[in-house]
Amino acid sequence: MASVTSLSDSVQQQLASALSATLPEAAGADPLLRRSDRADYQANGILALAKKAGTNPRELAGQVVSRVATGDELIKEVEVSGPGFLNITVSDRAIVANLAARSADGERLGVPYAEAPGTTVIDYAQPNVAKEMHVGHLRSAVIGDAVVQILEFTGEKVVRRHHIGDWGTQFGMLIQYLDEHPGELDHKGGDGVSGEEAMSNLDRLYKAARKLFDADEEFKTRARRRVVDLQAGEPRTLATWQRFVDESKIYFFSVFEKLDMEVRDEDIVGESGYNDMLHETCRLLEESGVAVRSEGALCVFFDDVKGPDGNPVPLIVQKSDGGFGYAATDLSAIRDRVFHHKADTLLYVVDARQALHFRMVFETARRAGWLNESVTAHQLAFGTILGKDGKPFKTRAGETVKLEGLLDEAVDRATAVVREKAGKVGLSEDEIVENGRYVGVGAVKYADLSTSAVRDYKFDLDQMVSLNGDTSVYLQYAYARIRSILRKAGEARPAAHPELELAPAERALGLHLDQFGETLREIAGSYEPHKLAAYLYQLASALTTFYDQCPVLKADTPEQTENRLFLIDLTARTLHRGMALLGIRTPERL
Ligand SMILES: NC(=[NH2+])NCCC[C@H](N)C(=O)O
């Protein structure tokens, strides 16, 4: 099936050609079409073009109007308004015909692929080995997953990278401790260790190792030696290190599963994965003069990065003791992603508090020539999750909040909400449990995805599972309600009736459905999934108005009923697809 040109794109093209026929120097100029309350669209671009050409804007607008073909095909009416705007109304027939073409396009709903898709490597969902995941990791996972889904839908080649923290000096202490207490990571119940048990094992071990490290000088020395062994790739040390990684992965996967999110083992390439590249990265930076030795350390300096004392704060690529840190790994990862994976875009879904690190790393890579105009890197920085009190989210004891507990609580609350209505819908206990899970996890994801990522937001479960307002469960109910009407009407896909006149609420719904592809196109360029959430919420709101004003099963004629069924069917499929792109399920019955 074929992709569908949106009504707004078609109108835009017609205006642009009328415009360039009227004013040849305006060829290729953008008529700046926007949705409008006065008509379907308003074009605001003529004003500026007329000024530039030294002609009267209203006159120019009038000439453009006289060149636009009007009728039933597409543009029904176009008129000059105000100082030189155009108000455009499209025909009912064009709306329904456009939607019918979308409906015929199966799963893609007429959404075109990007014209020139590229390769994006996206770095997201990157917890740390032997450490509990926190709410920041939740944000990275949820936002990153949505961006992956949206980019893949537009045809972009996406390489996923989970840059887990699995390397560094802290492993010396852990490895040494485990070698001295070999039973500590054994699983009591045999092989089938749960994620929770894995994490509590690791946590206990971490605390014990830390305690010994701080108290016992000789242990400290032994631990430091193991760091050297690890970096040298000494086999026994590596084997012990691997146990930490494996145990942590059991835990990570259990959390990702709870999040209802696919993470593939082969996409987990942690900091250790770049170990072999570190020396070469440093050599390249030093030989090109991008990095210089300063007090023994290999450093990159920036004019605009200074400490409180006014002295420059460099990016340290290699410490004076020869050790490599976070920056060396990230610079090596850039080389791998650009030269091996042939990426043209690198994305990093990481906490805004790491913005300076990434700014310095990206600038260093630019100076080295690894990044340039055609190979770019962006941090999709996200803000902090706050508690209800507006302070960073902590438990009462001041500890960071455990992710699993949070998800469990969301699911509990959601299950209660689902249960309340379950009788009316006739849900079985299994369905209640399954829906509770999809509604609860969806609530958490949607809350995260419905505000701009850089903003902090309050984690408020009551609000998140509320049936009214901008929540996932509101959208999920909108979907389920349509599905229930369609089931009542019989499962055959309803046909469109372009010959019918549309009510205002039908037009509004139809014009919004038409914008799906454009919304995705915009997001694929700006990496702002919250705009998809906003789109879907507006879609559900347009649907609510439609229900209020347009009886479906009791419409005036059978054709009108079928056309309305057709409209809500396409709405349901658009909701379903859009929510799936956000990583949220839409149960059939709720
Ligand atoms: N390439 C990167 N540095 N990615 C981000 C890694 C995030 C890091 N593991 C953390 O927990 O903060």
TrEMBL record:
Q: Which InterPro entries match?
A: aa-tRNA-synth_I_CS, Arg-tRNA-ligase, Arg-tRNA-synth_N, Arg-tRNA-synth_N_sf, ArgRS_core, DALR_anticod-bd, Rossmann-like_a/b/a_fold, tRNAsynth_Ia_anticodon-bd
Q: Which CDD domains match?
A: Anticodon_Ia_Arg, ArgRS_core
Which positions does the motif 'HIGH' region occupy? 127-137
Q: Does the keyword Aminoacyl-tRNA synthetase apply?
A: yes
Q: What class of enzyme is it?
A: ligase
DALR anticodon binding domain spans which residues?
475-590
Give the reaction(s) catalysed.
tRNA(Arg) + L-arginine + ATP = L-arginyl-tRNA(Arg) + AMP + diphosphate
Listed GO biological process terms: arginyl-tRNA aminoacylation
Which E.C. number(s) belong to this protein? Answer: 6.1.1.19
Question: What is the annotated localization of this protein?
Answer: Cytoplasm
Indicate yes or no for the key word S-adenosyl-L-methionine. no
PROSITE patterns, alphabetized? AA_TRNA_LIGASE_I
| Chief location bin | cytoplasm
Listed A to Z, the keywords are: Aminoacyl-tRNA synthetase, ATP-binding, Cytoplasm, Ligase, Nucleotide-binding, Protein biosynthesis
NCBIfam families of this UniProt entry?
argS
Q: How does it assemble?
A: Monomer.
Family membership noted in the UniProt record: Belongs to the class-I aminoacyl-tRNA synthetase family.
**Protein name, UniProt field:** Arginine--tRNA ligase
- What species is given as this protein's source? Streptomyces doudnae
Q: Which gene encodes it?
A: argS
